[in-house]
């Protein structure tokens, strides 16, 4: 029996590295698409493989861009993948407000190019699209596959476009294509410009005496945070199902940014109490030193207040369950921080 080939776009990101490790363990020949600039930056790029114990000898990397349809067709022609995991994106929501066209090109047009390449060259392959809870916007929680989608950012709108492209190709061309609607998922490999990793890095620096205070945005923003390790396992399970479908992956538990900061400081042996309101709110340690401040510069142009997923469909049809709870996630990020 020939070894199955998996192609991962966005392989240099947090999810891409965890997924590559998981697929290698499952016996797949793993190929990864990276942009020409994906080897820049010691933490955010290819160094993630080493941190997770993945040898680059076990992954075949291809330089390219999902926005280039000719490059995408050439990639499919040479690899002939059995599985395509599309994780490519401008992944930071705040950046999408500054570069909305680029976000839409990578997320929506890139998905279209991949689906079209699969339809033409590998129609029996299976396709996973990394959809996002950001598509729900401020729809009332908990959100599931039937919840109305009202995205509040260019990123969310682009993800919703890609989501519908997958559904269209599935219905029109009878290809195996699934949407994984993943709620926030973190890990020690999370980039430093995400709020969870910013908190972790800040707490570690404060504990080491290298920093006095962390500046954060909306402390009341609430998210459903899980662990990336659990979610890539869910991606794989979706691709093994008999019938392609769309699935929410989430823990079903919602916590505020304030709660995440409290939990991270607790891992470092520090208790934080809160004083003031709004932009004047501060987090103070037992010695009376301000350790957290609110900075309006970190608020979103259009705030997304509460995301909490209902993953009962994935639990019922795939048998998926998260293995990390909130406290275990924060603890793993603190213990695995690269400070």
In words, what does this structure look like?
With 339 residues, the chain is of the alpha/beta class. It has a domain at 5-187 and 226-253 and 307-325: NAD(P)-binding Rossmann-like Domain (Rossmann fold), CATH 3.40.50.720. The protein contains eleven helices and 15 strands. It has helices at residues 14-25, 47-51, 69-79, 93-98, 100-121, 154-173, 195-207, 228-239, 257-267, 312-317, 326-335; strands at 5-9, 29-34, 59-63, 83-86, 126-132, 176-182, 185-186, 214-216, 222-223, 226-227, 246-249, 255-256, 273-275, 282-284, 290-294. The strands form four sheets. Strands 3-2-1-4-5-6-11 form a seven-stranded parallel sheet, sandwiched between helices. The longest helix is centred in the first third of the chain and has 22 residues, at 100-121. It starts with a strand and ends with a helix.
Which key terms come to mind for this protein?
single chain; 339 residues; Rossmann fold; 7-stranded parallel β-sheet; alpha/beta; 4-stranded mixed β-sheet
Structural class: alpha/beta
Largest sheet: 7 strands, parallel
Task: Provide the low-confidence segments as ranges.
Answer: 39-44
* CATH fold name of the domain at 5-187 and 226-253 and 307-325: Rossmann fold
Order of helices and strands: EHEHEHEHHEHEEHEEEHEEHEEEHH
> So what's the CATH class of the domain at 5-187 and 226-253 and 307-325?
Alpha Beta
What is the CATH homologous superfamily assignment of the domain at 5-187 and 226-253 and 307-325?
NAD(P)-binding Rossmann-like Domain
Q: What's the end-to-end separation, in Å? A: 45 Å
What's the architecture of the domain at 5-187 and 226-253 and 307-325, going by CATH?
Answer: 3-Layer(aba) Sandwich
Total count of helical runs of at least 4 residues? 11
Quick one: how many beta strands? Answer: 15
Shape: globular
Gyration radius (Cα, Å) is: 20 Å
Helix percentage:
25-40%
**Beta content:** 15-25%
Strand order of the largest sheet: 3-2-1-4-5-6-11
Output mean pLDDT: 94
